[in-house]
Amino acid sequence: MKPSAQGLPGTGTGRVRGAERAGATGATGAAGPAGIPAQSGAAAGNRAPEGAGPAGGVRGEHTHGEPPAPRPRVLVQRSSVRGQVLAALRTALVAGELRPGEVYSAPALGERFGVSATPVREAMQQLALEGAVEVVPNRGFRVLERGARELAELAEVRALIEVPVMLRLARTVPAERWAELRPLAEATVRAASSGCPATYAEADRAFHRAVLALAGNDQLVRIAGDLHRRAQWPPAGAPAVRGRADLIADAHEHTALLDALIAGDLDVVRSLVGEHFTGA
User: Fold this and answer.
1) What CA–CA distances, in Å, run from 186 to 151, 252, 253?
2) Per-residue confidence at 177, pLDDT binned at 50, 70, 90?
């Protein structure tokens, strides 16, 4: 799709590992953009995590001077702590809540998520493999700054992979199969209308994933999905998030493309997919 680029209040006492030790048992925290709330004081207590220094920090990671962190939304469940933290961090990236160039420490993020620093480090290591962040020794993880050239390169690679597949599918997939994707296309329009870039990003990926899945190639779906996710991270120096009007325009390209696929109009399909990836 067309590319879309506060972090954590410093440190403090009262960090806990309650969500990992005891699971989510009804303790909730203040809602906010990061996606996972900290535990309430009653549930969290005042214990510092293992390795915490006098000021509540973890040895080897300095948490002072960090940008304010988004408040989490959903209490992490023990069964999938790392996965939920990873999902929340990805959402924060798309929403522009983790700012390019800023360094975030695992202890400070863990404090907001109501977990120890360990699942946060694990999730951040995955994001490092995906090219979203880099490790800063003894400090944490820096969100990488991406420029227009990288976004253009991602768009070009996505087009090289997805456009030929879509054109081949347009010639071989019957209209009734395309019609089955109508709910997903309409879901992108509703998500765009919400104005939430993270909500739209998920609906956007779901639609593209369903289209490519018709090719019957799992490796294609996986690689294209990874490129798509990376293309959704906002670049440095740009507005924090894409505007609602841009999201809606992008979403309506999905419904127009689906109409052309159902009608079997290859010329329109070719034009729409070119515009969708390049903006031409």
Assistant:
1) 26, 8, 11
2) very high
Separation of CA 105 from chain center:
19
**128 pLDDT above the threshold of 80:** yes
Distance CA 171, CA 169 (A): 5
Percent of the chain with pLDDT over 90: 46
Nearest to 230 by CA among 152, 119, 160: 152
For 262, the token pair is 């159902």
Q: Comparing C-alpha atoms, which of 22, 57, 58 is closest to residue 43? A: 22
Q: Which segments of the chain does DSSP mark as H helices, in order?
A: 18-22, 41-44, 81-94, 106-113, 117-129, 148-172, 175-179, 182-194, 197-213, 218-231, 244-263, 266-278
Structure tokens at 25: 């048992």
Of 68, 137, 62, 69, the C-alpha closest to 105 is: 62
Q: What is the token pair recorded at 279?
A: 């903006």
Amino acid found at 11: T
The answer to whether residue 63 scores a pLDDT higher than 80 is no
CA 38 and chain centroid, separation = 20
Residue 116, C-beta contacts closer than 8 angstroms, at least 6 positions apart: 17, 20, 49, 50, 110
Q: Which of 68-77, 169-178, 242-251 has the highest mean pLDDT?
A: 169-178
Residue-averaged pLDDT of the chain:
77
Highest-confidence range of 51-65, 126-140, 210-224, by mean pLDDT? 210-224
43 vs 18: CA distance, rounded Å: 7
pLDDT band at residue 65, thresholds of 50, 70 and 90? low
Here the tokens at position 120 are: 């946060």
Identify the three-state secondary structure at position 229: helix
Distance CA 204, CA 141 (A): 27
